[in-house]
Design a protein that fits this description.
Length: about 210
């Protein structure tokens, strides 16, 4: 039985609460696809078990709660959070260094992009909290802005494709590829801007 069907069976029985809990778990770095979870929530709405607009709100609350807990865990406990084995597994020394490099290169935009990078999402949020690079309100703003893009896409896609599973999965795969392409383009643009600003700063220093 595939992941989508397992989630559908679970969500059909427990509704909004089940969707919220699974999304919360996704935020903790558990390898459950967040996009498929949101699509499954949309599907049960399309089948009449829940209201799709309420499902969108539950989806937003679930992803933001999960992300926020990871951020605050890093902020409150600092390096001690790595003593917690599940977090130590997702935030390895190599990943920590990689995340630090991304913050140096892309700044706060890393928090926005992280929502679309399942393997790096949790490590980035924990690192942001640990290093205190950004205040909580800015983290919530960047993550919330990204969630306002991804959550409705998957929930309403599941809703409209509930009765045509083959079409739905085709659109899911296309959506995943499209989002990754858009994120790559955004990173490229931010990288170019960062390089130009760096060159300007170097020129100013030389003149001084």
């Amino acid at each position: 039985m595939d992941t989508l069907q397992i989630l559908l069976d679970f969500f059909t029985g427990y509704g909004y609460f089940a969707v919220f809990v699974v999304l919360l778990i996704c935020g903790f770095g558990v390898p459950i696809p967040e996009d498929i979870t949101l699509v499954a929530g949309g599907i049960i709405s399309g089948l009449g078990y829940t209201n799709v607009h309420y499902m969108f709100l539950v989806g937003m609350l679930g992803v933001l709660a999960g992300d926020g807990i990871m951020f605050m865990a890093g902020r409150i406990y600092g390096d001690k959070v790595l003593q917690f084995r599940p977090i130590a597994r997702i935030l390895t020394p190599a990943r920590f260094e990689a995340v630090q490099e991304k913050f140096e290169k892309y700044g706060h935009w890393v928090l926005f992009v992280a929502r679309f990078l399942p393997g790096l999402r949790s490590p980035i949020f924990v690192t942001a909290g640990m290093t205190r690079r950004v205040p909580y309100w800015r983290f919530l703003m960047m993550d919330g802005f990204a969630a306002l893009i991804s959550v409705p896409v998957w929930v309403y896609l599941g809703y409209f494709g509930a009765s045509n599973r083959e079409w739905l999965m085709t659109m899911v795969h296309r959506g995943q590829a499209g989002i990754l392409a858009a994120v790559a383009l955004l990173l490229a643009v931010v990288g170019v801007v960062w390089m130009r600003r760096r060159r300007i700063r170097q020129c100013v220093k030389r003149q001084d």
